[in-house]
Each structure stands twice: as C-alpha cells, then as structure tokens.
Amino acid sequence: MTVHEQSNPFLIVQQQLKEATEKMNLPASVYEVLKYPKRVLTVSIPVKMDDGSMKTFIGYRSQHTDVLGPTKGGIRFHPDVTMDEVKALSMWMTFKCGVVSLPYGGGKGGIICNPKELSKGELERLSRGFAQSISAFIGPDKDIPAPDVYTNAQVMAWMMDEYNKTQGGINNPGVITGKPITLGGSLGRDTATAQGCIYTIREAANKMGIQLDKATAVIQGFGNAGSHAARLLADLGVTIIAVSDSRGAIFNKQGFNVQELMDYKKSNSSVLGFNGSEEITADKILTMACDILVPAALENQITSKNAPDVKAKIVAEAANGPTTPEADKILTQNGVVVIPDILANAGGVVVSYYEWVQNLMGYYWSAQEVAEKLEAQMVTAFDKTWNTREKYGDVDLRTAAYMVSLERITEALRLRGWI
Ligand code: GLU
Hints:
Strand 1 (about 40-50) and strand 2 form a beta hairpin. The protein has a seven-stranded mixed sheet, with helices on both faces. Strands 1-2-4-3-5 form a five-stranded mixed sheet. The longest helix has 26 residues, at about 365-390. Helix 4 (about 85-100) packs across helix 14 (about 395-415), helix 12 (about 345-360) crosses helix 13 and helix 13 (about 365-390) crosses helix 14. The protein has helices at about 5, 10-25, 30-35, 85-100, 120-135, 155-165, 190-210, 225-235, 260-270, 325-335, 340-345, 345-360, 365-390, 395-415; strands at about 40-50, 55-65, 70-80, 105-110, 145, 215-220, 240-245, 250, 280, 290-295, 315, 335-340. By secondary structure, the protein is of the alpha/beta class. Among the domains are: about 35-170, Leucine Dehydrogenase, chain A, domain 1 (Rossmann fold), CATH 3.40.50; about 190-345, NAD(P)-binding Rossmann-like Domain (Rossmann fold, 3-Layer(aba) Sandwich). Glutamic acid binds near residues 74, 96, 177 and 348.
C-alpha cells in the first residue's frame, strides 16, 4: 500500500476484515458480501447563514449491512469528513455491534463542516437540513443515527424533531439515540462510551496483573469519550499524567484533578493553561511513558512512525480507527495489548441500544439498571474476545474481536440465504 492508502480507513477496514475471515477459514463469499457498504447516500444541504448568505454543506450516510437488524451508528460534524471515512466507520459499526451481540448492522453519517465556526442557529438549520435529506433512508426499524465526533444530545433532538415532521407529524423517539433525557434519551448514555472503555481496561489489567491504583494513564482527546474516560480512570485510582485536545497537550507528573480539568475545559474551551500543568507537544503524548494509553480523538494517530516508541502496556481505543494496521503489528510484536475500537468503545452503542429498546417499550430504566446491564454486556464481550485470542494463539485482540463478530454475522448471512 502507498502511504496515502495506508491511512485510508476504508482500505484499512477491508484489510482487517480480510485478515480475520482468512484466519477463520470462512468461505470467500463472506468477505465478498461484507467488503462494501450496502448503500451510501450523498446529500447537499443548503443552509441560510446568519449574515443572510447561503452556504451548501455536503453530508453522507453509509449503511453497511442489515443482516443482523437495522443499521446503527453516529453522525459526525468535522471539516475532514470524507465519503471513504464514513464508509469505513459504518463497517466498524457492524463489527462493533457484532462483538457486543446487538441486533444491529453498522451505519455512519458525517457532514463536512467546522461546527466551531457555526452559530447555534446555523448548527440547528444544518442538523435539520441533514435529517430532512436522509429522512427516507432512516427510521427506528431501518437505520438509527446517534452522536459522534462534535455532535451531541441537542443535535440529536433537532434531528429527531425534524424526522418526525417529515413522517407526517408522528412522535417516534426511536429513530435516533443519544437524545436529551427529557425527549426519550437513556440515563447513562452520555458517559457510556467512556464507561464501557473503562470496563475493558479493568478486565485487561486484571488479566495482565496490572494494579490500577498504581498505574498511570495518558489520554489523547478530551471530548465526550476522553474526558469521561479520564475521570472514570481517576476514580479507579489511576494517575492521569497527560491529556490533549485539538489545541495541544498538557502534562503533570503528579496527575491531574480530572473533575477540575473538565470544568476548566468547559469555561476555556481547551485544556491548555490548566493550573499546574506543563505544555508539551501534541505528538509527544502517544509515546510518553505510562501504563495505559487511551487514544480518544480521530483515526490514524498511532502509525508505523510512532508505534515503535509507544511505551504503554495497554492501548484502549476509545476513538474509532486510531491505529493503522502497520502500527498494530509493531505494537503486538512489542507486547503492547491493544483493546480494539470495536470492543473498547462499544459502550456507546450498547447504551444507544438500551435507549432504542426503552423508546420502543415506552418504559424507562433507572441509571443503576443501565449501568448493571452495560457492565455485564461489556465484560461478556471482553471475555469472549480474550478467550478467542487464546484459542487461536497467534492473533491479536483486534482480529479476535472481528472473529467473535464474524461468527454471528456469518451465521446470519447463511440463515438468510445471502451466502
Ligand atoms: N458514535 C458512536 C460509535 O462510534 C456511537 C454510535 C451509536 O450509539 O449508535 O460507536
């Protein structure tokens, strides 16, 4: 692969899938039907800007496979969104839902935009415009969006509201998850990605004999997943020695008070300048000496260039696709345990599933009920993946997670007569 191809997430997910199907000796037809998304929609969304001008944004929605149920996955707002990225992310969602045994296939959406440069009104019009233009393709039993990078509960509320209008004024909250609690959201959804990730770290640390109250962690990205992961790790006694966001990185050998750092970021919109911190260069953060590294930002962060210098014992991928296949091989050779994205960050979609179930029932669970269910589901998925790795011996946890997922998907493909 060329350097350009090495960082194309769509080619990466195809490569990961191919490797897993070959290791499992699955018939070639499995790779053949899963190597492309079933449907990819491109939309243009003209938005009236606050200054009276019109601006047209481009958005995508990719639906990978509905063999296990409706497609499911977030919508991101980011200037670097591409169709290939959205396609890849929808495929990762399929395998993610497979590992944690959800009755879903994968979907993903994205709009090329910089939400930090949009006013609240512009953001609302963009969100509604996107929901309107994909409304014929989504629905509670078709494709169910959710939050992702730079989208949140408010964006989900606008999209749900708009979708319901396009359906003749129905009131169906189950079309989208990650909604505000008042509009049918689930308790625990906002922290679910981080919480799920922490369960997988705890289980891995247990297996590896790492004592969390003596461990150090570095968090790349301080958004929804990264900031809550830092806080929850700190609650388990882990010392958080470095964090970064899109503006830069900070370090404190004694460890941060994460709650104070979260409050600081809220009022200053960056972690930079936090009391008692030393500023470091952002690319240093991934190779710092620590026990646990949590990439919680974007794709292609750990590459063949910096992977040889990664010193963490555990890399827990709270982000989707942060490690390239070349880097994966280097980390494995060096004995680093990588808890792959499709397992490590599955907590978000697990609680999205609970939200959808609650919407369909019209009956809502307590925070404790959600938390207990999430823990059980994540621990089961972790154990299955760990045991699969032990069974095959020569595979890493990523391939093992694909295998767990592919067992269910292949059976469903066979039962439906698609292969
Ligand atoms: N965007 C999240 C992910 O990548 C959540 C998806 C969902 O809840 O449907 O897993």
